[in-house]
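Repro:
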Amino acid sequence: MSAVETVLIAMLAGALRVSTPFLFVSLGECLTERAGRINLGNEGVLVLGAMVAYATSYLTGSPWLGVLAAAGAGAALGGLHGVLCALTRVNDVAMGIAILLAGDGIAFFFGKPFVQPSAPGLPGLPLGGWSTVPQVQSALTVSPLFPLGVAVAFGMAWMFRATRLGLRLRIVGDSADAARALGLPINRTRLLATAAGSALAGIGGAFLSLVYPGSWNESLSSGQGLMAVALVVFARWSPVGCLGASLLFGAAGALGPSLQTVGVTSYYYLFYAAPFVLTLLVLVATVRPGRAVRGMPGELSIAR
């Protein structure tokens, strides 16, 4: 197998593996923002979800209970964000930063006893059985959370497009005046959307601790929750677009390790910054001063 093929297969594996937390956090942020609220606190939710999932898996022996616990912890923290943002003169962005710090602090405080112990992880799904190449088989061994995230992306897109619930969410996110005229409960809708979105972000955190890298420590996230906000802008608030953008970011995150597999060791650490560089390029390419981005919900703070 040539060096180019080795790198491409490694990037494919990275796209399927590294993209999963990006996918869940971006879908959660997409749901929240389509209801007219920004939640920068999903970075803290990601870290808290990772800790809760790992601790629950270690204490119960069931990684799936860990995933459910991570979703519950994310929903609780997102619900707190939703309740506080419904108060008068509370800014979404400032409160999101406070929630981020709170999630990090809670995870670091209660997660210290679980840094060393080994918890059961989620098993992989071998989708490469059709190939006789070991590298392809390894690349196509994916976490069960990845197909779950794909299903959530298409299910959410269908909900926005074809259901009454999706229509109400879009109305609340696009125009609070229109929502009031129709008698829609704006604060309750945004609260539920924020809680559900943070539950998805919590599942993304469970992937980090139970699948890849498969452990719990205080530097687990590396800013993926914050990068997901830029990813949602890049995807134009489309759930299916979030799936494609997550795969792109996942492949970028795998660039450094992929080059190392073929012996490229000089300045390899620069390639590890590829997701962060891509985030900056996405923001520069898609955001223009004084003009709302196409597809942006009208009630977002940054659109006012």
